[in-house]
Amino acid sequence: LHGINDLLCTRRIAFIDMASPTGSPQDKVNNYEAQAIAATVVSIYHRHETSFCAAQTVGVIVPYRNQIAAVRRAIGAYGIDVLLDITIDTVERYQGSQRDYIVYGFTIRNERQLEFLCGSTFTDDGCVVDRKLNVVMTRAREHLIMMGHAQLLAKNALFARLLAYCREKSSYFSPTLDDYVGGRFSVGAPSKDASQ
Hints:
globular; two-stranded antiparallel ribbon; alpha/beta
């Protein structure tokens, strides 16, 4: 079974650890994540080809406009016209709409960007809440697939807890980019409630 398809069949939430590209001149573009997001979107399309709806089936959220363009290019390379109509946007512009699948790319490649990403936290009843992450998680009706550089994200306590939760649910994966895009990785059996 193709790894991405297997993941989509067995996990409601998943985190894909993506190494950060080096030598790219633009901080706000992460081409590794763009390629992984595109492969995920294409797999979702193939799973739901007969009922696929650009406005309902899948959406992509990333923090930067430059990354939106990179993801669009990566998806466009597959030549599937209907995928050009899916919504790829920032968290702020995604509020109020939902999709069956949400693919979220953290995009960030350095600690300065981590500070930007975490700039919307507040405390509610003693719990730290991140507004942006909350929006991302509540946009997904059925499945949330997140990807980012785990080692960098783990420097933030909230994201570290998110990563720990995904590991606990057998929903944390760390394939190489080529293996992920090619579906050459195994997801194994989910924990009892990972597919709930």
